[in-house]
Amino acid sequence: SGVIVLSWYPPGMADENGEPTDDLVPVVLDHAHKYNLKVTFHIEPYKDRDDRSMYHNVKYIIDKYGSHPAFYRHKTSTGRLLPLFYVYDSYVTIPEIWANLLTVSGSQSIRNTPYDALFIALLVEERHKHDIHRSGFDGMYTYFATNGFSYGSSHHNWASLKAFCDSNNLMFIPSVGPGYIDTSIRPWNNHNTRNRVNGKYYETAFSAALLVRPEIISITSFNEWHEGTQIEKAVPKRTGQVVYLDYKPHKPNVYLELTQKWSEKYRKEQEQWLM
C-alpha cells in the first residue's frame, strides 16, 4: 500500500517560511484512510531537537495518532509492527545524543517501550553512514532528488550503501525524484538543476533504486513546486513572474502514471527477491 510521508513540526512550530501544521494531521489521516493510504512522519529539524524533545514528540505522535487506521506501521523482518519515522537533517545532532534515545542502554532510551519505532536518518555524506550506525538508527534514506548533488543522492553509490546497511542490519531507503529545478527560489543553484527529460530522469532513478533491492523506496516529493520535484497533476500556469513547470507534451498526470508503472514493477520484482 502507498504511504504518505508528512513533513512534521511539533505543535505551534514551523519552518521560517511556513505555518504550524500539526493541526492538519487529523484531516490528512482521515482522507488517506478513504483512499486506503497510510501516513507517517518526516520529522523536521525544529529548534532544540535533541534526545529529550524527540522522545516527547514521538510519544505525542503515537499517543495522538497511533490508533488511527491510517497510521503507518512497518512489518520488520522479525515480524514486529512498528511506526517508522524519517528524521530530516539528523546529522546536525551528534551520534552520542541520538544514542541516548536510540540504543537500548541510552539514558533516554525509547527502545522496548510502547514508543519504540523505526528511525530513519538522512545520509548526505559517506561518513554519515558510520555516524548513523553509531547513533542507533534503524536505517538511512537519501532524500535529495538531484543525482550527483550529494554522496547519498548519487545513484552510483547506492550499491555500496546498501551493502553497508545489509552488513550492519540497517534499512537502506533510496529516494527517487522526477527532476530538480529550484532557481526560482535559489537563483545561484542552477548547477543542481536536473532536466526531467520527458520522464526519463524519474525512470532512471527508479531503475537505479530497484537494482539494489531495497525494502522501501521513497519519492521526493509529491508537491514541492518551488523545487520542481512535484509529481502531482500539472497544467500550464503562471502567476506574475513565476511560470510553473508543466508536463507538455504529456498528459497532466504523466508522473502519477509513471509512479504507478514503477510501483507495480517494484512489487513484482520484490516477490522474486523473496522467493
Automatic annotation (TrEMBL):
InterPro entries: Glyco_Hydrolase_99. Pfam families: Glyco_hydro_99 (PF16317). It catalyses: N-{alpha-Glc-(1->3)-alpha-Man-(1->2)-alpha-Man-(1->2)-alpha-Man-(1->3)-[alpha-Man-(1->2)-alpha-Man-(1->3)-[alpha-Man-(1->2)-alpha-Man-(1->6)]-alpha-Man-(1->6)]-beta-Man-(1->4)-beta-GlcNAc-(1->4)-beta-GlcNAc}-L-asparaginyl-[protein] + H2O = alpha-D-glucosyl-(1->3)-D-mannopyranose + N(4)-{alpha-D-Man-(1->2)-alpha-D-Man-(1->3)-[alpha-D-Man-(1->2)-alpha-D-Man-(1->3)-[alpha-D-Man-(1->2)-alpha-D-Man-(1->6)]-alpha-D-Man-(1->6)]-beta-D-Man-(1->4)-beta-D-GlaNAc-(1->4)-beta-D-GlcNAc}-L-asparaginyl-[protein] (N-glucan mannose isomer 8A1,2,3B1,2). Its EC number is 3.2.1.130. CDD domains: GH99. It comes from the Eukaryota. It is a single-pass type II membrane protein. GO terms for molecular function: glycoprotein endo-alpha-1,2-mannosidase activity. It is found in: Golgi apparatus membrane. Belongs to the glycosyl hydrolase 99 family. This is Glycoprotein endo-alpha-1,2-mannosidase.
